[in-house]
Amino acid sequence: MSIHRPKELSLFDAAILGQAARDAVVKLDPRQLIKNPVMFATGLVAVLSTALTIRDAGSEHFAVMVQISAWLWFTVLFANFAEAIAEGRGKAQAAALRGTKSSAVAKKVASVEARDFQTLPAEKLKAGDLVVCEAGDVIPGDGDVVAGIATVDESAITGESAPVIRESGGDRSAVTGGTRVVSDRIVVQITTNPGESFLDRMIALVEGAKRQKTPNEIALTILLVGMSLIFLIVVATLPGWASYSGTAIPMVFLIALFVTLIPTTIGGLLSAIGIAGMDRLVKFNVISKSGRSVEAAGDIDVLLLDKTGTITLGARQAAEFLPLSNVNERDLAEAAYLSSLADDTPEGKSIIALAKSRFGLTEPKNGAMTFIPFSAHTRMSGVDFEGTEIRKGASDSITAYVAEKAGRTPGGIPKELVLAVERVAKVGGTPLVVAKGDRLLGVIHLKDIIKPGIRERFATLRAMGIKTVMITGDNPLTAAAIAAEAGVDDFLAEATPEKKLELIRDYQKGGRLVAMCGDGSNDAPALAQADVGVAMNTGTQAAREAGNMVDLDSDPTKLIEIVMIGKQLLMSRGSLTTFSIANDVAKYFAIIPALFLASYPQLQALNVMNLASPQSAILSAIIFNALIIIALIPLALKGVKYRPASAETLLRRNLLVYGVGGLAVPFIGIKVIDVLVATLGLA
Ligand SMILES: Nc1ncnc2c1ncn2[C@@H]1O[C@H](COP(=O)(O)OP(=O)(O)OP(=O)(O)O)[C@@H](O)[C@H]1O
Ligand SMILES: [K+]
Ligand SMILES: [Mg+2]
User: Fold this and answer.
1) Residue 459 belongs to a domain with what CATH number?
2) Which secondary structure element, helix H or strand E, spans residue 262, and what is its range?
3) Separation CA 29–CA 212 (nearest Å)
4) Residue nearest to atom 22 of ligand 1 (CA)
5) Whose CA is nearest to atom 14 of ligand 1?
6) Which listed residue, of 198, 222, 522, 593, carries a Cα 20 to 30 Å from 117's Cα?
7) Are residues 78 and 217 both part of a single domain?
8) 440 and 321, same structural domain?
């Protein structure tokens, strides 16, 4: 199977521009145009102007009318062109992704243990089917590993060449169709039906085919329609003024004036800005399920980050056994070992490894064992071995558990244990307390390392006015040590999935927008509740379904860039809206004096632009109005530059650049065009 990655597209890719030029004409279809009310109005004016021009063929203003009609059509075409380019770029990315869809052959098995398989095309697989994948096989569909462990080459979707481990149980069980098994053998339970795979949905989204207007876009569109109506009234009153003074303004001039005044610039670029924001995210290897969540990302106030794996490197390793004074270290190690035999978390595996290397422990030959797997809810794991309950886990969970066994109140924790727990916690380690029956044995020290560079990233977020909160199942001491070292604003310790969900709801009740990322199935409710929930691609299928974004690289720190891309999208739209409206205001003052100069010579004082004639003024304005859309397409697609700063600083800077710029540019642009029009004798 050949592997393609979406390549960096040039803004001036000839194939995309060619197709977009054709699509711009197709998009003249009124049924499509109506979705953009400002452009629909412009289209109506173009039709009207064309009709008037034909009616008045040979009249005094005929030549100018022909030109005005042509430029009105260009205005609509240019806006369609902008949208078509954005869509074309999305389609190009989708095509590259589609290249990764293989015509893989699935090896379907009847059960996990079954040795013989039936081959069938990957498209025929249904949710619930079991398939076996061996070294060299392309995984035929999205699913969860239900047996075995394998290294998988996921470069087809992530671009990362190093193979990753996928195994049953735990939070690394999800596999994506189109990726390839490099070593070993796994049994995968398919989780999606034909045509609904992750890749299928991803393609549909980046193609823009299923794109819905976001709530913000709808709100802005309503505002633009409102402004257009105001200008409709303004223009409608002009003939009265004119006839009062005994001059008649040709109808074509009036309707052209209307188009120059309504917010055609932002109206024409709005959807291109939205599509481009989505594309920027895809280029960043993050797939968003809706445009709405990209926008929400730009408005985030609170960022919840897991400790393990996000702030620290993850895969905590057992480093030492700390027995209580009346316990011998080997007994503690043995209990820890037994309780971890069926624990396939990185923590459990590292405990096995440490016990083996320190005391050469091996699995007992006989004896009935019932394993209790780790859960984020109980925050412990263990085994019932020959009637004895051995447990390990978070200190508060285990002490409460033991107290209940012994019928004591949880208060009576031995001082010595408290000290051992604190010793580990103060250096940012995770203490796991081990108990056998109702007897506390000691502590396992799990070491965790803070990711390099994470402090600077939190500083950046603070500059953006975003609060960072670290979430951990660990005890408050460990949490405080890591939080201080990493520089987060706040932390939630001894967190269970319920507490996490509650925290999100609390922030949301206070009117804040919350983003989080997660990978485990127990993160799914919180991912669904958060305004922006980013699931790791390596995570479980449940997490990927619950989130509204999926990070193909499974890098939890990317949440930071996602927020920046969202902010950039909002800023691009805000800046271009400011520019567009300032432009329209400026045009009003540029054109009105020129139109009425003949009848009201007093207006000469306002006629700062000194345009050649009323005809030339209106023609120049309509040409400028069309060309500015083309000129701003690159900015709409690339987005305005975003530098982390507070909202007020950004607002002030943007008002200055795009507001004042928007007022000044039409005066210069229209004047230049007017000089050209006059020189060439066009009006
Ligand atoms: N395999 C395990 N067996 C028993 N207890 C564990 C195991 N792994 C972790 N714990 C304990 O349970 C607590 C909660 O674990 P959990 O994975 O939910 O949170 P965390 O790893 O501390 O934080 P994060 O949400 O960042 O992963 C841990 O802090 C630890 O004390
Ligand atoms: K306009
Ligand atoms: Mg964890």
Assistant:
1) 3.40.50.1000
2) none
3) 19
4) 473
5) 473
6) 198
7) yes
8) yes
pLDDT tens digits, 287-323? 887 788 889 999 999 999 888 877 888 778 999 999 9
pTM of the complete model: 0.77
Amino acid letter at 46? A
Contact 268, 480 (CB under 8 A): no
Range of the domain at 79: 14-93+206-283+563-616+634-680
pLDDT tens, 531-561?
A: 999 988 877 777 888 888 988 887 877 888 8
Give 195: exposed, middle or buried? Use CB within 10 Å, 0-12, 13-18, 19+: exposed
Tell whether residue 265 is among the known ligand binding residues.
Answer: no
368 in the same domain as 245: no
Each residue's pLDDT tens digit, 471-490 = 998 999 999 999 999 999 99
Which residue CA neighbors atom 15 of ligand 1 most closely? 473
Domain boundary among 191, 222, 255: 191
Which domain CATH number covers 155? Answer: 2.70.150.10
The first and second tokens of residue 306, run together, are 């897991």
In this structure, which ligand is nearest to the CA of 306?
1
What CATH number is associated with residue 350?
3.40.1110.10
Assess whether 321 and 444 both reside in one domain: yes
Residue recorded with tokens 């929400």: 296
Q: Helix, strand, or coil here: 385? A: strand
Q: How far apart are the C-alpha atoms of 566 and 276, rounded to whole Å?
A: 11
**Residues involved in catalysis:** 306
User: In terms of domains, do 484 and 355 share one?
Assistant: no
User: Same structural domain for residues 568 and 435?
Assistant: no
Q: How far is the CA of 336 from the centre of ligand 2 (A)?
A: 73
Window from 10-14, 18-22, 323-327, 581-585 with minimum mean pLDDT = 10-14
Candidate from 474, 475, 500, 523 with most ligand 1 atoms within 8 A of CB, to mutate? 474
What six digits make up the tokens of 237? 């009153």
pLDDT at 19: 94
Domain total for the chain?
4
Residues 544, 467 share a domain:
yes
pLDDT confidence bin for 9, thresholds 50/70/90: low
Residue 5, H or E segment: none
Residue of 172, 308, 351 best suited for mutating to test ligand 1, as the one with most atoms within 8 Å of CB: 308
Residue nearest atom 20 in ligand 1 by C-alpha distance: 473
Domain shared by 129 and 153, yes or no: yes
Exposed e or buried b per residue across 458-479, where buried means at least 16 C-beta atoms within 10 angstroms of its C-beta: beebbebebbbbbbbbbbebbb
Taking the CA of 45 as reference, the closest ligand is: 2
Question: Cα of 181 to ligand 3 centre, how many Å?
Answer: 26
Q: Is residue 642 part of a domain?
A: yes
| Residue to substitute in 311, 378, 472 for testing ligand 1 pocket (most ligand atoms within 8 angstroms of CB) | 472
Residue 410 clears pLDDT 70, i.e. is over it = no
Tokens 């990655």, residue located? 5
* CA-339 nearest atom, ligand 1: 3
> Binding site annotation covers 343?
yes
- pLDDT band of 6, cuts 50, 70, 90: very low
Please give all residues whose beta carbon lies within 6 A of any atom in ligand 1, as ranges: 306-308, 343, 345, 347-348, 374, 376, 379-381, 392-394, 430, 432, 471-474
